[in-house]
Write a structure and sequence with these properties.
Strand order of the largest sheet of chain A: 1-2-3-5-4
Oligomer: heterodimer
Number of strands of chain A: 5
Largest sheet of chain A: 5 strands, antiparallel
Structural class of chain A: alpha+beta
Strand order of the largest sheet of chain B: 1-2-3-4-5-6
Number of strands of chain B: 6
Low-confidence stretches of chain A: none
Helix content of chain B: 25-40%
Helix content of chain A: 40-55%
Shape of chain A: globular
Mean pLDDT of chain B: 94
Mean pLDDT of chain A: 87
Distance between the termini of chain A: 33 Å
Radius of gyration of chain B: 13 Å
Chain lengths: ~180, ~120
């Protein structure tokens, strides 16, 4: 079980939205999906700073899953959960990928999750990729979620399926 | 210097001012990253050849920028910082768009002697 979920009481799902990509989506569709998911995830957030941080997570995770997932396996879930009267927003991406790519992702995600100084980790990563103009796998998007987004990030692997999730408390559940 | 125009993103260069001005608007996503990187390489060559002292980059109307675009900026700033004819990069940001200060702080830490942040008047 992932560290984020460990010890947590059973959640009550308040809302759940899922986008599954059946084909390689065009850039315009990805843009629309990010915009829609961002709007959806921000509906319950009053704090502008938190909304901005969640936007970083939604955009980076969605682009990440489309870029690295096998065609047809990519999925994004936005979940609003309640535990002990506290509301949590959960952003989760799922995809399958070749074993080599999963191994590399797990290495990066483990370093990121366990990093005691996410900003220093992010700075070092940027410093290491800045000298080249070559695009490629850099991990900057995931590192940005922890550093600039100040959000905890975790993952699980089942066979060739990788799930990455970010969760943040967004306030107390108000009485009806 | 040519500009970049698409439905959701643009870069406009104003070379008529005493200090070159680059204005970014819209959303910088994955589709924009490579054109942005190519543009910044050309901008760097031009500013070097003109021996410019500084450039002002206005992102106050930039709605969002993803990590691929941040990577393009990081490479440009690295090129400037390690150039034999360096110039200063002034980044003007919009405090109302909260992600901007966070992201631009990161770029400042990459090259503090080269990059300065400038908060736009609200």
């Amino acid at each position: 079980m992932s560290q984020l979920l460990e010890g947590a009481p059973a959640p009550e799902t308040i809302a759940h939205a899922r986008v599954s990509m059946a084909l390689s989506p065009p850039a315009s569709f990805v843009k629309s999906v990010i915009s829609w998911l961002t709007h959806l995830s921000q509906l319950t957030i009053q704090d502008r700073d938190m909304a901005s941080r969640v936007r970083i997570a939604v955009a980076e995770l969605t682009e990440n899953v489309i870029k690295y997932g096998r065609t047809g396996s990519q999925r994004v879930d936005i979940v609003l959960e309640q535990r002990r009267g506290q509301l949590y927003l959960r952003i989760e991406t799922t995809n399958s990928a070749p074993e080599r790519d999963i191994g590399r992702a797990v290495e990066l995600l483990s370093q990121l999750r366990d990093s005691v100084d996410p900003i220093a980790y992010y700075d070092q990563l940027i410093l290491s990729v800045a000298p080249t103009h070559e695009p490629g796998v850099s991990g900057l998007g995931l590192a940005r979620i922890r550093a600039e987004g100040e959000l905890e990030l975790d993952f699980r692997v089942q066979g060739d399926v990788l799930t990455i999730f970010v969760e943040t408390p967004i306030g107390a559940q108000q009485a009806a | 210097m040519d500009s970049i125009q698409s439905s959701d993103f643009s870069i406009v260069t104003d070379e008529t001012a005493a200090q070159p001005l680059v204005t970014l608007t819209g959303t910088g996503d994955a589709a924009v990253a490579q054109p942005l990187d190519d543009y910044l390489v050309r901008l760097h060559e031009q500013l070097r050849s003109r021996k410019s002292a500084s450039v002002l980059v206005d992102v106050t109307q930039l709605e969002f920028m993803n990590s691929s675009c941040i990577k393009a900026f990081a490479s440009w700033i690295h090129d400037v910082d390690t150039s034999d004819t360096p110039y200063s990069v002034r980044l003007r940001f919009n405090p109302g768009l909260r992600w901007q200060k966070r992201t631009l702080d990161t770029l400042t830490r990459l090259a503090p002697r080269t990059v300065q942040l400038e908060e736009a008047a609200s």
